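Example record used in the benchmark description.
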Amino acid sequence: MNVGVDVGGTFTDAVLLEDNKVRATAKVPTKKDLLESVLEAFDIVLKGVNTKELERIVFSTTMITNLIAERKYDNVAILLIPGPGLAHETYYFGTAVHILSGAIDYRGREIAPLNDREIESILADLSRLGYHRVCVVGKFSPRNTTHEKRVAEIIKKKYPDWKIDLGSLIGGQLNFPRRVTTTYLTSATREPYQHFINSVRQALAVRKIDADVFILKADGGTMPLENAEELPVETIFSGPAASTLGVQALIPPGETAVVVDIGGTTTDLALILSGQPLLSSKGAKVENQLTQVRTLAVKSVPVGGDSALQQVGNALVIGSGRLGPAYCMGGPAPTPTDALRVLGLTELGDPVKAEEAMTGLGKPLNLSAQDTARKVIEMVVERIASEVNNMFLDWEQEPAYRVWEVLQKKKVRPSLVAGVGGGASGFINQIAAKLGCDPYIPPYAPVANAIGAAVARPTMQVSLRADTEQNYYIIREEGFQDRLKDRHFNETKALALAKEKLIQRAAKYGLVVEAGEIEIIHREVFNMIRDWTTTGRLIDITVQTPRGITGRIEGGV
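Model output (structure tokens):
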């Protein structure tokens, strides 16, 4: 038996699966005390179950997605060591950015030293401004971490209570702007994510569950719980990935569909082509900045059933944040859920309170409660449909989409919109009509995210870095370093070694994988030239066991 748990901003969902059948489901409000919410969901789906029979539990969460969508993350100062190259004005990331002297070249050699006095002066300025969280990123820090570590030492000495994140530990690839964004978001969301991980651990301990536990990543793969807390940004689109896998497991095999997951805080969009989720070739994009996070081609739109509504001038406006539950469920402000209740499109909440919310919202515009509710629904439908059309401009540029389009032998868009999440039943028919598509609400749609987590195939990664001139290699995930025993070591042999190490690492977690099905998710080779002769190579390879779902969902009991 497997359990999937999705911790959302509004509800925490859980499902218990046995032989690809849904045995139990739960949907409970997400409270400020996450432990209470997870325990409540556990108690519902595990009622009468011997927890020793559980094989695997997978958690997904929209926590990081929601924090970023609503911009409710910590203030973080960025200290950059870019060295020579682009003008410093290029490195602007919407927060406090300071450029430090010093430089490391692509080989990892120091070509300009740091200036300790300059660093101390910048830190004093940040302290006066109230910053207590800093990330430090050097352009070639994956080749040599000396400068980043030196800056961290100075920070710890002067301000021991500050939180520090180093780019070399967050992203191992050499794309500097993407590594900066990835490090920044990791630092900004680390504290609330740690709270999430601690709640998960406490819930498992309280209920004496010792099954294998994984966290769902943005690409639909998973990572063991013990490795998850170091890289919160890997879950940046965990919720959208869960809903995508859930729909994949719930629709007919080989189907093509747009996934629209309408939650309380956000609406998540994704695409399934001929039964397979579309993977982004460029990585996760956050506020128009690309990151080094591998992800499905998804987007989170800051509008959901609990989005706060307000009247501004002569217009109704959908806010980008959630102030609490819907007004009809005891919340502080009118929401789209109240509009659905007034129109009889949901059974949630108190109809009298919903009527009151829509009446108060529409009164300055001389609109009745019914007319106000219809206008709100139209606004939500228009916003989501517009975002889907915008996403198609991105989806159509993906290599996998182009291949799919060639196989269709004509230019065509998917004709099915699969609606899941708590708000699907109220909105999806109108959204599909707006897009000229057929609507489809699969079974178990309200808990599709939890189903997606439960059916996610466990995955593992191994990142290998080799320097053939220095004659060594390291496995980053295990902190392992060894000498190269083959003086003719090349990219092909590096890939074979990485796969061998991955198979060994996966076996520790009971995962059986064949070399032929391993995914290559990053490959980079730098030739080192001296006196017009190649003297060695720097080889970076990351491999992962295959993503996917363990099976399709059959009828429940």
